[in-house]
């Protein structure tokens, strides 16, 4: 893959995870043909102890925040973890947890933090429905239709893939905000779990 084909988004994602320089990240991604995990290995070999995959650091500190929607009909509890007590009490970190709690309150379909958390039987059940819906379509496009619909469905139930509702975030996803906070704090920011309560549900 040429350097021209590496997107700025991928370079930024790699930089957020490793703290390496922009040019080093671009070179590593070019060398790994765009594979972020391989690029992290390349950076670690070349730059040694200076590079650390922030995703591997244990997040053992953190904060629990609550949000109660006006009218007291919907409430959310969320746990967001990090590496040190210093960051756990940091204003940006606490605000991130509160903003995400508010996002969950406004998103009744959200049930999982990341795609990996969605049980296989739920994916399979959804895929079967989409397969039946696509049964009339030509065989060569059926798989694409099912994959596309399943992807769209997962985005509605996975928290990290949600676009933040509040206009101040300019359509960024929870994942993008988390990556920005990781880069800013130099710590592994993990949304550990959440619970959404709604009267009558």
Please characterize this protein's 3D structure.
The chain is of the alpha+beta class and 201 residues long. The chain has three domains: 53 residues, Orthogonal Bundle (Helicase, Ruva Protein, domain 3), CATH 1.10.8.10; 94 residues, Tetrahydropterin Synthase, Chain A (2-Layer Sandwich); 39 residues, no CATH class. The chain has eight helices and three strands. Strands 1-2-3 form a three-stranded antiparallel sheet. The chain starts with 7 loop residues before the first helix and ends with a strand.
Write the layout of secondary structure elements.
Layout: H1 8-18, H2 22-31, H3 36-47, E1 61-68, E2 74-82, H4 85-88, H5 91-105, H6 120-133, H7 139-157, H8 174-185, E3 190-198
Antiparallel strand pairs: 1-2, 2-3
Which keywords apply here?
201 residues; alpha+beta; Helicase, Ruva Protein, domain 3; Tetrahydropterin Synthase, Chain A; three-stranded antiparallel β-sheet; 3 strands; flat
- The count of strands amounts to 3
CATH architecture assignment name of the largest domain: 2-Layer Sandwich
Structural class: alpha+beta
Rg, Cα atoms, Å: 19 Å
Strand content: 5-15%
The residue ranges in which pLDDT falls below 50 over 5 or more consecutive positions are: none
Helix content: 40-55%
> Globular, elongated, flat, extended or rod-shaped: what is the shape?
flat
* Subunit organisation of the chains: single chain
Q: Strands of the biggest beta sheet: in what spatial order? A: 1-2-3
Can you identify the CATH class of the largest domain?
Alpha Beta
């Amino acid at each position: 893959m040429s350097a021209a084909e590496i997107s700025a988004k991928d370079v930024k994602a790699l930089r957020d995870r490793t703290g390496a320089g922009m040019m080093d990240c671009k070179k590593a991604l070019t060398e790994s043909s765009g594979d972020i995990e391989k690029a992290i290995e390349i950076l670690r070999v070349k730059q040694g102890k200076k590079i650390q995959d922030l995703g591997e650091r244990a997040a053992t500190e953190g904060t629990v925040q609550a949000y109660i929607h006006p009218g007291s009909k919907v409430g959310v509890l969320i746990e967001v973890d990090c590496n040190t007590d210093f960051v756990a009490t940091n204003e940006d970190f606490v605000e991130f947890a509160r903003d995400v709690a508010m996002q969950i309150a406004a998103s009744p379909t959200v049930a999982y933090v990341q795609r990996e958390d969605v049980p296989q039987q739920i994916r399979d059940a959804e895929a079967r429905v989409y397969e039946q819906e696509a049964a009339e379509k030509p065989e060569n496009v059926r798989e694409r239709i099912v994959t596309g619909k399943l992807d769209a469905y997962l985005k509605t139930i996975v928290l990290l893939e949600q676009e933040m509702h509040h206009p101040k975030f300019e359509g960024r996803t929870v994942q993008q905000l988390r990556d920005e906070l990781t880069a800013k704090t130099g710590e592994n920011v993990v949304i550990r779990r959440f619970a959404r309560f709604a009267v009558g549900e």
